Each structure stands twice: as C-alpha cells, then as structure tokens.
Automatic annotation (TrEMBL):
Gene3D superfamilies: Alpha-D-Glucose-1,6-Bisphosphate, subunit A, domain 3, Alpha-D-phosphohexomutase, C-terminal domain. CDD domains: PGM1. Keywords: Carbohydrate metabolism, Glucose metabolism, Isomerase, Magnesium, Metal-binding, Phosphoprotein. It is an enzyme of class 5 (isomerase). PANTHER family: PHOSPHOGLUCOMUTASE, PHOSPHOHEXOMUTASE FAMILY MEMBER. GO terms for cellular component: cytosol. This is phosphoglucomutase (alpha-D-glucose-1,6-bisphosphate-dependent). Catalyzes the reversible isomerization of alpha-D-glucose 1-phosphate to alpha-D-glucose 6-phosphate. The mechanism proceeds via the intermediate compound alpha-D-glucose 1,6-bisphosphate. This enzyme participates in both the breakdown and synthesis of glucose. GO terms for molecular function: magnesium ion binding; phosphoglucomutase activity. Residues 16-163, 198-308, 317-417 form the Alpha-D-phosphohexomutase alpha/beta/alpha domain. Monomer. One of its GO terms (biological process) is glucose metabolic process.
Length: 583
C-alpha cells in the first residue's frame, strides 16, 4: 500500500518538559489534541538526521492504558518523518530493560540495527483511563536520552508549529508477529511485530548459568514466588522461570499484563506488593502455611525489583552490595572481574564498603540511570543500583528487574552448590544477608515518601533545609535539643556531581546532612509522579559492631527519624503527620 504524508498545524502546549524518566502525565493530558504528537515530533527534531531518515526505531512499552493508540500514532509519524522501519513488541509489550537490549543486541533479517526507541511507560505509577501515561526516548546505546537531547526536546515543544503524519496509513495489527510493508514518498516503510521475550531471554542465558539455577529450583528444599504485579514482567516470567528454569506455574503471581495493572499500584515495595508480602510471611496477619524461601516482585515496566526471603526483606541498598560482593563467583558474565561499581547518592553506603574491601572503582552519582550509563559506556562500571528498587549491570543501559532476580538466584545456587541434592541445610536469603552484615557491617536504612505534596510547600521545605546548612554549629544545637544521643553533624551540602566521562556538572541533586559516625540524612524532590511533588527523606545509620547488626531497622533509626522530621519541619510545611510510604 502507498501512503501519503500530510502536515498538521499545531501550537506549543505548556508543561512538556521531560524529566530524567521522560514525560509523565495523566492519560487525559496525553489525549488532548496534538499533545503526544507535539512531543514525538519535538523528539524527532532534536535528533540528527541519520537517527531518523532511513533509521530503525523500537516503539513499545509496558502495555498500560493508551499504549495501543499511542503506538499507532508514533508509527504514522515515524513513516512521515522518513524512518525506514519500526520494530514493535507483540501487543506493544516490551519491558524497559528489553527495549534497551533490543536496541543494543537485535539485528533485523537484513542486518538492520536500531538507532533508538520510544518507550511508552510511566514505570511504577498506576495505569488506566484516569491514571498515568508516559513516554521517553532511548538512544543507540540503549540508554535514556541525555540532558543535551531532552533539553532540545523541551525547547522544540515551546516553538513547534506543525508535524507530518501518514494519516492514511492503516493501523498495524500489533497482536500478530510479522512484517507489514508500505510505500511512501521517501520509499519503503516496514513495521515488524516480533516476540517480546526472544531477544531478552537470549541475553539472560548468555549472562547467567541457567543450569545451576534450574538445579536450585528443582530442589525440594527450595521454593520461590514471583509477582509481576500485572505489569510487563508477566510477558517474560512464564518463559524464563517456568519454561527455561522449570519452576511451577503456581510460583507466578499476577503475571498477566493488564492495561490498568489489575487496579493496583505496580510499585514493588512492602506497601504496594501486598499479595507477595503476605505470601512471604511479612504481612500483618498470618496467611497460614510455610512461606517460600525466595520471593521477588517487579514494577509496571519491569525495570525495578524487590527481593524477599522467607519472612525477610532485603533493602535495595543491601541487594546491590550483596550482588557486587558475590558477582565474580556466582555469575559467569563477571568471571573476569568487575570494572567498577556505582550507586545513586541517596542509596546507602553499603556498596562503598564492598568496593573498598574488594579494591574496586567506586562512583556516587545523582539519581537517574543515565549517569550509570555514561560510566558503563566509559568502561568504568559493571554493577550499579539505587535505593528505589533499581539494580543493574552493563549488559544494558537501564535498570533490570528480572536480571536482579536471576542474580539473586545465581547467588543462592552458588552458596548451595553442595546442599541442593544432599542432606545439607539450605543457605537462605536471610543467611546471605546476615553473613554480609557480619563481614561488612550493616547500614540501617529507611526511606519516607510524602507523595502529591503541594509543590510550593515542598519547595519551601527544601529552601529551609538549605538555609539551615549555612551554620553547622546552629544545626548541631538544634540536633542536640531534639536528641542528645545522636552524633554531631560533620558537614552538610547540596550534592553536586562532575561526570568523569563527559565532564558535565549536575547541581542541586539532593540535600545532605552527614554525621560524624557515618550516619546520613538526605532530602530530595522526586520527579517520577505525574502531579504534585514527592518529598523523599532517606535515613541511614552505619553499624560496624557485628553484635549490634540484628536490631529492628525502625528501632535503630528512631533517633535519626526524630531529628529529620523536626529539623525539616516536615509536618509544618506539608501538613502530613505520616509519610505515604515507608520502605
């Protein structure tokens, strides 16, 4: 079929500034006339000509509500902009890590390689007609567009006057694998719908020893449960855990992807992953029966993960440190060593201690996966993570939830080599974590999230905290007036980062209060919600004494929590007496 290109007049729409995770708004905002189209065209205009004309692009996402409409619009705009071919995961489904893998690894039948892709996701935010939608662009390295590109996109949204679109191009059947071919003014245009899991599964099998994980899963001593929270991880869970690794179908929870995530909030934490938390024996009431040995959950687009043992929660900060400490022995991909490790600034310093002990290069970066991507492209980082349930490695340029689960399964298989078939006692998730604390010390850690706070009030709170930093003696007077049993504040600042790869400087990345005993308070405004502001408060205390690493986290952190809430005047500024979520 031959299609024509028409030009549609438009005008700028306010508020199309992409954050570190792309553009996220309510569905009703995206459904406004020209809203999505303006952003997509502004993205095409921000890219160099060879990344668009004659190029191959990936367009897929987590399958949330409005994805199917958005994919068809982007296909028609790609055709009109001279793109040569578009690759779409079946039913629009590709996890964010899978998009990164497809961009980096996949070759078309004619040898074509993708130069980038649009990912349709609002990550861990709810989906549905009244909920959230999102879009972001990833570059040819498989990672999120850098600020130089997102700034251009935003500038373009403020001046856009028109966009081309192939309106007479018929909608492509995205439920059937195959190639649809068309002819346009600039020649051939193809849309290929492909299996969502093939490329990603192949990559995972090249990283991990599936045979050793299969042995672990076949042991009567070992049981596990995986909760996809009705997100896109469900498109991979059956294939990897059941078909490839031999797990029972009953081990999978909520693994059918749904446009509204089954009405839930697809954020893998102790608050929202209620069903898994109950099954793992961590709920408020006893569900009866023995919990599985290992549990894990994913968010909407499958880039985040939560790791649980039987009646035991592993903090994301501990998780990345434990993966780094065990990677060389347990994961074949790392057998020749780690190039370096990195964490986001708010993440606990558990990884720092491992890096120092193993003599590894270590980096502390602002929140945003692109900072890790730069280090990886520079050959400086192998394993990285952030406290917001994101863990990953240099196999792709996004965080990767299923990769983290397979990493933990690999560590469990490695630690239980002689125990799986014999009479030996199973080394559990809790055993691994407690042994890690005994070796490296424990970083007691918690995060308080205050969601949908009035943006003006949130800004005032942050300004108040910056102002306080001008006099550390004054801060210590306030601290001692609240709790005399807490160490003095040694320094306080706003975190700033100079990228060792490209020399770029990122300012105002979070407010830090650093105590003499290694404890920390960090305050950040998060841009991952679609409305209002989210204040994140991070509280950390380091304990080296092995006899004191077994306390309850909230009990150990109670003095610092008290300091943080009173120092920041949290209730006074926000009107909130309790956080929305505690992790």
């Amino acid at each position: 079929m031959v299609f024509k290109v028409s030009t549609v007049s438009t005008s700028p729409i306010d508020g199309q500034k992409p954050g570190t995770s792309g553009l996220r708004k309510k569905v009703k905002v995206f459904k406004q006339p020209n809203y999505l189209e303006n952003f997509v065209q502004s993205t095409f205009n921000a890219l160099t000509a060879e990344k668009v004309k004659g190029a191959t692009l990936v367009v897929s996402g987590d399958g949330r509500y409005y994805s199917k409409d958005a994919v068809q619009i982007i296909i028609k705009m790609a055709a009109a902009n001279g793109v040569r071919r578009v690759w779409v995961g079946k039913n629009t489904l590709l996890s964010t890590p899978a998009v990164s893998a497809v961009i980096r690894e996949r070759s078309g039948a004619d040898g074509s390689k993708a130069t980038g892709g649009f990912i349709l996701t609002a990550s861990h935010n709810p989906g549905g007609p009244t909920e959230d939608f999102g879009i972001k662009y990833n570059m040819e390295n498989g990672g999120p567009a850098p600020e130089s590109i997102t700034d251009k996109i935003y500038e373009n949204t403020k001046t856009i006057k028109e966009y081309p679109i192939a309106q007479d191009l018929p909608n492509v059947d995205i439920s059937a694998i195959g190639v649809s071919s068309f002819e346009g003014p600039e020649g051939k245009f193809d849309v290929e719908v492909f299996d969502s899991a093939d490329d990603y599964v192949k990559l995972m099998k090249s990283i991990f020893d599936f045979e050793s994980i299969r042995k672990l899963l076949s042991s009567p001593k070992f049981s596990f449960c995986y909760d996809a929270m009705h997100g896109v991880a469900g498109a991979y869970a059956h294939r990897i855990f059941v078909e490839e690794l031999g797990a029972q179908e009953s081990a999978l929870l909520n693994c059918t992807p749904k446009e509204d995530f089954g009405g839930g909030h697809p954020d893998p934490n102790l608050t929202y992953a209620k069903e898994l938390v109950a099954r793992m024996g961590l709920g408020k009431s006893d569900t009866g029966g023995e919990p599985p040995e290992f549990g894990a959950a994913a968010d909407g687009d499958a880039d985040r993960n939560m790791i649980l043992g039987k009646r035991f929660f592993v903090t994301p900060s501990d998780s990345v440190a434990i993966i780094a400490a065990n990677a060389i022995g347990a994961i074949p991909y790392f057998k020749s060593g780690l190039k370096g490790v990195a964490r986001s600034m708010p993440t606990s310093a558990a990884l720092d201690v491992v890096a120092k002990s193993l003599n590894l290069k270590f980096f502390e970066v602002p929140t945003g996966w692109k900072f890790f991507g730069n280090l990886m492209d520079g050959g400086m980082c192998s394993v990285c993570g952030e406290e917001s349930f994101g863990t990953g490695s240099d196999h792709i340029r996004e965080k990767d939830g299923i990769w983290a689960v397979l990493a933990w399964m690999s560590i469990l298989a490695h630690k239980n080599k002689g125990n799986v078939e014999g009479d030996g006692k199973l080394v559990t998730v809790e055993d691994i974590v407690r042994q890690h604390w005994a070796t490296y010390g424990r970083h007691y850690y918690t995060r308080y999230d205050y969601e949908n706070v009035d943006a003006g009030k949130a800004k005032e709170l942050m300004e108040h905290l910056v102002k306080l930093q001008s006099s550390i003696p004054e801060v210590n007077k306030l601290v001692k007036g609240i709790r005399s049993d807490v160490a003095n504040v040694a320094s306080a600042d706003e975190f700033e980062y100079k990228d060792p790869v490209d020399g770029s400087i990122s300012k105002h990345q979070g407010i830090r209060y650093l105590f003499e005993d290694g404890s920390r308070l960090v305050f950040r405004l998060s841009g991952t919600g679609s409305e209002g502001a989210t204040i994140r408060l991070y509280i950390e205390q380091y304990e080296k004494d092995a006899s004191k690493t077994g306390r309850e986290s909230q009990e150990a952190l109670s003095p610092l929590v008290d300091i943080a809430l009173k120092l920041s005047k949290m209730e006074e500024f926000t009107g909130r007496s309790t956080p929305t979520v505690i992790t």
